[in-house]
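Hey forum,

I'm writing up a methods section and want to include a predicted complex as supplementary material. The small molecule is zinc ion. I've pasted the protein sequence and the SMILES. Can someone with a working setup run it? I'll credit the forum in the acknowledgements.
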Amino acid sequence: MVVLPFRQIHLDFHTSPLIPDVAADFDPEDFARTLKDAFVNSVTVFAKCHHGMSYYDTKVGIKHPALKRDLLGEMVEACHRYGIRVPVYISVVWDNWAAEHHPEWRQVNREGKFIGAEPFQAGWKWLCLNTDYAGYVAAQTEEVVRNYEVDGVFFDIVMQWECYCEKCRRDMMAQGLNPENPEHARRFAQQVCERFMRRVNEIVKRYRPQASIYHNSRLRIGTSREAQFYTHQEIESLPTGGWGYLHFPFFARYVRTVWKEFLGMTARFHRSWADFGTLKTEAALSYECFHALALGGKCSVGDQLHPRGKLDKAVYELIGKVYRRVAELEEWCEGAEGVAEIAILTNADMEDGRMTESDEGATRMLMETHWQFDVIDRYADFNRYRALVVPDRFVPDPQTVRKLRAYLQKGGKLLFSHRAFVDAQGNFALADLAGFNLKGESSWDCEYLLVSKALADGVPDTTHVVNAPSMVVELRNAKSLATIGEPYFNRTWQHFTSHRHSPMAKVTRRPAIVQSADGRIVYFAHPLFRLYAQHGYLVYRQLVINALRLLVPDRLVETDAPSFAHVTLTRQNSRNRKARWMLHLLAYAPIRRTRTIDIVEEPIVLRDVSLQVRTGKRPQQVYLAPQRTPLPFEFSDGVTNLKVPEVNGYQLVVLEL
Ligand SMILES: [Zn+2]
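Reply by user p_vandermeer:
Happy to help. Structure tokens for the complex are below, copy them as they are.
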């Protein structure tokens, strides 16, 4: 198994062939020294970039015309002298030199146009991995891993769209697929990618059996099915570069259920990649790196080397400040795994694999209320969790429904909403177990919730609007926890009142929230998770959490930390050491200060944060790390109670059991 270093740099180097002075100022000693001084212990450097330029002495590809030295070779050698690991980067589907010289290698869309940058547009052109281009990349890979002592290979942009080039159409037909059917084209593109990954992985393993192998740009919900092709995961997620601050925790909670080793990859840039002349704040970089540790991952910071080959001192001062702190925390993070008692079961693999709005709502609700949770797809082992949360939609394929039934029969708990487990024909797959059936959607554009005592904790005592139709619930052997109030009328040009939806006109007996007779299943008839992502109405979160507490009354961690703080649990189990639990407390609050970018300017100081941790037994000691300050605690009924005097952005608390 590959064990990754904690403090990595992903050093971009996409350098146009028009730039005349490549590596003119490169000094291998200064390069490696700068990294070492910034506490970096792994750097991913470039063999070939998106321009298609190679940065080593190549007989296969095109060496950058202005490069007068073997930059890759010198980087590898210098870094190894300083004990820094060096994986290499190979751009796969984006290679503008190859695209311009071999148009027959390009990906073609349904209209017969080349995919990617148009003739008069700056940008990248997409190459088809079903053409001889794949052989070109394989030969480059072989040249690099044979000639250089590389510690890993990072293949970037391993992405094949549905391609309709002559060769793809011909090969689809030969396999009995119909190129006109987009689903067949998608399936074929997936096969092409898998064939490519298998081919280059074999080459890397032949020459460098210990090397790490990563294929970037493929991480989606559902990628768990490709686990065999990766030694680890790297979650490319630049919070200010379009990914936002929720993408990383969502995918980290997914990835960690499949891959033991993973990186959170952010960047030093203010916005996104190649934002030359910018730095993010120390608080933002700290937050992003500590968040990776807090979820059981390791850190990678993206940078781009100036064409002249000199690392920017200010960049490495910033990274050094954060990585020095990461280094101090590592003994509590090595081999640590994330602990989760519940999971969000997402339907995203049946859509485009990205976080859906419903997933987003569920993730926010559980993070804001400090639940310990994973994100899983339908291929996961459900039995690892005390409860599953299934937000709004889930295509009930027969295999998953069988697995879910077995899980529920063994005592598993389920909270789901709206159309989850309802198939395209409108059949609800769990009617017998749940004790109710679902009969399509109501005709209202808004409805009101009348909440019973069982869910009323913390919910203001009034009716609460939901701006979406509910599923109509037919109760058999289940109890209603909330009922629906109906408005005067839907808002149309003929019937409307005031500025928005009309007020409630009448109370009905129709159930809005239902619990099965055995208590193990709770159902919400409205898509509350999507609506929480859209509107942020806290009552929706409170109702879901109240329902979840009915299912899991004795949760692992309770805290009075504020909703913007993160509280996560990791665990180290070592043969030669006592097991220990680590509580990570993060207090940073990204604030939207432009139309699209959230800024973290400073850490937030929290005082006297109370925590109740269900450790089961009395810890031998509890202390703050890395300070090693002992922390007083009390233990009763399986729960360890403690109070953290101060959290200045980030604080680790260790419980030795
Ligand atoms: Zn093609």
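Some notes you might quote in the supplement: The first strand starts at residue 7 and ends at 12. Residues 107, 128, 130, 163, 165, 167-168 surround zinc ion (CB under 6 Å).
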